[in-house]
Amino acid sequence: MTATRAPRRIVVVGASAAGLTAAETLRREGYDGALTLLGKEPHLPYDRPPLSKQVLAGEWTAARTRLRHPEEVAALGLDLRLGTAATALSPASRTVTLMDGEDIGWDAVLIATGVRPRRLPWCGLPGTHVLRHLEDALALRERLAADSRLVIVGAGFLGSEVASSARALGARVTLVEPAPVPLARVVGHQVGAHIARLHRGHGVDLRTGTAVTGVETAAGRLTGVRLSDATTVPADDVLVAIGSEPATDWLTGSGLRLDDGVVCDAYNSAAPGVYAAGDVARWHNPLFGTSMRLEHRTNAAEQAMAAARHLLHPEPARPFAPVPYFWTDQYGIRVQAYGHLRDHEEARVVAGDPADGRFLVAYRKGRTLVGALSFGLPPKTLRPWRTAVAARADWTASTQPP
Ligand SMILES: Cc1cc2nc3c(=O)[nH]c(=O)nc-3n(C[C@H](O)[C@H](O)[C@H](O)COP(=O)(O)OP(=O)(O)OC[C@H]3O[C@@H](n4cnc5c(N)ncnc54)[C@H](O)[C@@H]3O)c2cc1C
Question: What pTM did the predictor assign?
Fold first, then answer.
């Protein structure tokens, strides 16, 4: 699915990691036509991974999260509209509608609107938080202090990182997770169990196999959460970290296929002249033979580059077939992974030992090596595994002791 003639008006919707990278790639590839970058937030593009780490820990100021200096953004020659949400897209009339009713015409549009946090019915009560935006991180940071009581709902990557940052500030943290082992579905039982031990070793009250059933309030403010084991945990603040959903509500009625993301082909295209990248985009990754949507910082940039290139040069096109990569930092330990771990059928420790806190895990699906994760090891340890995953290496051959 491609645009038929060279575009002269391009609109990028979403001014964060993917949107900014797309705009930069378009300019770098020589596109000198009109380029509008729309961002709902009032800020210049900033980075989200530090929000749960350095910003929450008070190590970075908000300004340090900026992805580019204002002069670098200005040099792109954009029609930059911050604090401006797109409310509709019409592939038929080739327009994007803005919140003030203005229609902007386009020859090609790139959707990079990311995700928004899932919420619970009581989110919005004073004392409840989600963490996606800079303001969310600053508001939570403001509330964390030695002995303040934080309950985190959901022990995924985000909840785990916040638990780690909050403990470093001396807060009392209860982490509530319905699954028996945190993150086991994504990274396997051994890695999840190790993360659970880390939490407990750092003084987090981790409650697994437990769901939040309600909240206690006094004078309209949250004072605690009720759990499925009939206990109540008193809280000054509650962070709801139960995952995200693609920000596609503004695309309802556009005719685009929306199915847990904007559904694209292997060339990042959702319809003629319409492309998508970053957390919002779902596509078929031919390397793994499966449809995926990633919420990884590196993918946001790589996919935006690929989408911008496909937009400008539809022929010859190479499918977007990356080996996904993510990292997470918890308790001063870096965890890194390559591949598509989510559907794995086996996870095996192939180097190091979880008991020492430094180890490498390989992931199998069928007879193929589909991913590898390193816990507390130097990045170079993982690189040969990335190459093997990219080559769709045979499991037995790759995991045999040397
Ligand atoms: C706290 C936190 C920590 C993270 N840590 C890691 C990590 O350690 N490692 C890792 O790999 N990944 C991490 N991530 C994920 C990573 O930040 C995302 O993958 C990345 O930000 C995705 O970029 P994006 O541009 O696709 O989407 P987003 O960053 O979500 O940006 C989308 C932008 O579009 C805007 N927008 C939405 N709707 C509209 C609209 N209708 N009109 C105009 N603009 C709109 C939004 O306001 C937003 O600014 C983390 C994320 C968070 C929140």
Answer: 0.97
